[in-house]
Amino acid sequence: MTHILQNKNDTLVVKVVGELDMLTAQExxxxxxxAMSGALVRNMIIDLDKAGFIDSSGIGVILGRYRxxxxxxxVMVLWGMNENxxxxxxxxxILSFIPFCSSEKESWEIIAKKxxxxx
Amino acid sequence: MDRIVKNRxxxxxxxxxxxxxxxxxxxxxxxxxxxxxxxxxxxxxVATSEAVSNAIIHGYQNNPEKTVRLxxxxxxxxxxxxxxxxGVGIKDIKQALQPAFSSDxxxxxxxxxxxxxxxxxxxxxxxxxxxxxxxxxxxxxxxxVKNKAxx
Lengths: 119, 151
Hints:
The complex is a heterodimer. Chain A is α/β, with parallel strands linked by helices. Chain A has 4 helices and 5 strands. Chain A has a single domain, classed as STAS domain (Transcription Regulator spoIIAA, 2-Layer Sandwich), CATH 3.30.750. Helices cover 46% and strands 29% of the residues of chain A. Chain B has a 5-stranded antiparallel sheet with strand order 1-2-3-5-4, with helices on one face. In chain B, β2 (67-75) and β3 (78-85) form a beta hairpin.
């Protein structure tokens, strides 16, 4: 299940609860696209603290949003991955270019720093 | 390889996205009849998810009325998952196994990478317009705990 937690300072906070696979990736894409079309969104924080499973479909949908954020010079940050999810994201290679951390507070700090530098 | 079959399930389901989760949870539940570790269980779930997603997305081009057949067999210290579709098939298996290859821009072609990383053997048998069978085999170390609840 994908929830939009808030949209503050041009930053959309998206929370994933449970699994991110082929079925839920579709829901993620629709929920996030809808939120992005209705407001000014430059950066994105993806909260994976309550995510329990991810596969390549889940990674694909995160990557798709990353490309959009990147295209407008925004910053995407991931946080809260459990060990298994982190291992899979590492193997996919996306953690080499998408910053990640362990709390929402840190995510805001990363965005503030990167946005200040002009991403 | 010990070839005594300990248990086997055969599952046929519609090629609907809802069934990806159902199939991996079912396989994981069966796998707990061997001494799997939590980490092995996660690997089995990801690999199964990838094989079934491929059957639905690529094999059946998202046609939910087509049937995916899954056979999961437990041997003494091996787990085998066979995922079969009667879809479009793969023209060039070698190319499909390449990490960056995907016919969908939002997918990185990671499906086979995960299957190969998490399982000990991945065999792909495919014929154009007849379908694809992916067989995943994993040696189970035996260091885990049997019959743990799977969520």
